Amino acid sequence: MKQGDLVVRKSYGGDVLFRVAAFTAQQAVLRGMDYRLLADAPVADLRTVRNPDELGGTRLARIQANESLRRIREERSRQADRAGYTTAPDDRRQPFFEMPGKVLHLDGDANYLKKSMQVYAQLKVPAEGIHCHESQMPHMLLRMLPQFQPDIVVITGHDGVLKQREDLQQLSSYKNSLNFVQAVNVAREYERSRDSLVVVAGACQSHFEALLQAGANFASSPGRIMIHALDPVYVAVRASFTPFRDTINISDVIAHTISGRQGVGGIETMGRYRIGVPNLKTVESEQNVNIL
Description:
Layout: E1 6-9, E2 18-24, E3 27-32, E4 38-42, E5 46-48, H1 56-83, E6 97-99, E7 103-107, H2 110-122, E8 127-131, H3 137-148, E9 152-156, H4 177-190, E10 198-201, H5 208-214, E11 218-219, H6 231-241, H7 250-256, E12 265-266, E13 274-276, H8 280-291
Parallel strand pairs: 7-8, 7-9, 9-10, 10-11
Antiparallel strand pairs: 1-2, 1-5, 2-3, 3-4, 6-13, 11-12
């Protein structure tokens, strides 16, 4: 067994797929492949996985991810109908132009960041992604917030409750919640208003209450459960496409996540989406017709 191998824990019935991040003595540090969980386990407890698709949990997680993406697209279509306009495949046919909220996404996992950026691109959300260790996120935000000036910040990576730590109200009982809290503090020092800068923070089993108290709008995990790798992305997308006059429907947002209300929660927040007129591409097309 070597660093980078895909493994499951035999003592847990092979329920979650991990990648080996490092070895310490006879222990392995593990990062979840479908869930934002950071764990460790004895090497003897691990079984190497050659074909991840053979695992029922992995197949289910991918099916759930595709379903959530489908529901988000449907919600975008319903949103357009309610607002009285249509989203055309060719944006030159639209009389308006769109300004979705800009996302700055910090991720402690390079693979998750790549998947997240693919979702933003598919849904046409303007986004900047940065991979850095969770402990470096507060420092990174100090530099990147003034440079990128986002409407939405996603602060995520891996987390987990430390073994033999029973006091879930103490930040010291978590692997990365303190780093996430410090990053949220930096974001709130930059912008105090929770409607001007929407903050989505946390990972698997993170200290939900501490993240909200620090200033996050949405956070994981109320039930201290595992959250899917793309749950923070779905929340950010909804914030990006909810009109700035409307409150983001918390219950509806959570329903679109894979983890549900045990995995993600939040507070009332205004959206960051705007439209404008005229659509310059439409104007240019009309000018070309007139010239002809």
